Amino acid sequence: MNYLKIGTRLGLAFGLLLLITALIATFGVWRLSTLKEATVRISSIEIERNELAMNWKAAIDLNWARASAALKTSDAAYISSLGAEMAATTKEVTEGQKKLEALMEGAKSKELLANVAAARKTYLAVRAKLLERKKAGEDVFAQVDSELRPLAQNYINALEAVTKYTHDELIALEKSVLTAAVTSQWTLGVGAGVSLLLGLLFAVWATRSITTPVQRAVEAAEEISRGNLSIDIDAQGKDEPARLLHALAEMQQSLSRIVGHVREGSENVETASSEIAQGNNDLSARTEQQASALQQTAASMEQLNSTVRQNPDNARQANQLAMSASTVAVHGGEVVGQVVETMKGINESSRKISDIIASLMALPSRPTFLR
User: Fold this and answer.
1) What is the pLDDT of residue 334?
2) Of the chain's two ends, which shows fewer C-beta atoms within 10 Å, N or C?
3) Which of the four pLDDT bands, split at 50, 70 and 90, describes residue 122?
4) Average pLDDT rounded to a whole number, residues 3-12
5) Is 158:112 a contact under the CB 8 Å cutoff?
6) Are 305 and 336 in contact (CB under 8 A)?
């Protein structure tokens, strides 16, 4: 399911919950409608036809008592009064019979009504004959019990069968309504419980499917922020948290490559720095060698300068000695010895000059002007 987006996932979860709720509501409305129809049937049909059947039986019981009394009495006025009452009751029974026949349904109920109608027809015919005979002055006392009573009992028994049938139908319908009400209560209760359970399961599932990968993404981001680029980021699916984990994995790989490049550059810089330091050391050594050579050159230049300063003095001294020798030679031989000694000094001075020049020529670094 992590291949579905969060919006689609939540839509499916809430859609299923709404569907279950709609089914429960539809079932509840249907059961309430059924109970309503059953209640209406009980109040408008079953109770009414049961009352009609009971009223019919009560009227027949009353009329049988009137007929029996009228046929057994000798008072003409009383007989006439009872006859009028029986006629009115018979009229009411006829109207009730029509209503009951309109309310009766099914083959059995119609068969019971047919039995009642046949028993009534036979009973009314015999009762009418006996009343006519009674009015004619004939004594029919014995025929009341022997002929009319069995017919009245058959009539009453047929009505009792109808009354029992309507009463049983009423009780059965009431029981079915009660059973349907209890079943509806249990069904709605179980449906509500299932809906709550599924809602809880869907809520937990949707929450975990969103928070678990987000938590993994947060933990991965925290590890990366602490510099740990070696963590394993498992990114599966195509939903938003999976895309976030994919992005973190790509960022981790990019950071690893960048860190690798930076590390390689640092190593190159370190190598270059070492080479530069080595070059600086070599340059320092060569600089020290040049400074030493310059010091030696300066010392040689000072020695040469001293020698050059001594050359004019030596030359003047030689010139003076030569002039003295010439004067001595002009004045006489007496100074020949002195001349000889003077020449010896000149010879020694010349030898010193030659040694100085030779030592200068032997220096390792001579100035350009001496080459």
Assistant:
1) 65
2) C
3) very high
4) 73
5) yes
6) no
| pLDDT at site 368 | 43
Residue length of the chain: 371
Instruction: Let me know: does 219 contact 228? Beta carbons within 8 Å.
Output: no
| 350: Cα separation from own chain's centroid | 116
CA distances, 27 to each of 38, 118, 133, 356, 366 (Å): 16, 47, 67, 137, 124
d(CA 96, CA 92): 6
> How confident is the model over 24-47, as pLDDT tens digits?
888 888 877 887 777 777 767 778
Residue 267, classed as helix, strand or coil, is: helix
46-57: pLDDT as tens digits: 788 888 888 888
Measure the CA–CA gap between 196 and 198, rounded to whole angstroms: 6
Backbone angles phi, psi at 209, to 5 degrees: -65, -20
With b for 16 or more beta-carbon neighbours within 10 A and e for fewer, the 206-243 pattern comes to: beebbeebeebbeebeebbeeeebeeebebebebebbe
64-68, Cβ contacts within 8 angstroms, sequence gap of 24 or more: 64/152, 64/155, 64/156, 67/127, 67/130, 67/131, 67/144, 67/148, 67/152, 68/144, 68/148, 68/149
The residue extents of the domains of the chain are: 6-218, 296-371
Q: How many CB atoms lie within 10 A of CB 324?
A: 14
In this predicted model, what pLDDT tens digit does every residue of 337-352 receive, in sequence order?
Answer: 665 677 677 778 777 8
Reply yes or no on whether the pLDDT at 280 is more than 70: no
Q: What is the mean pLDDT of residues 61-65?
A: 86
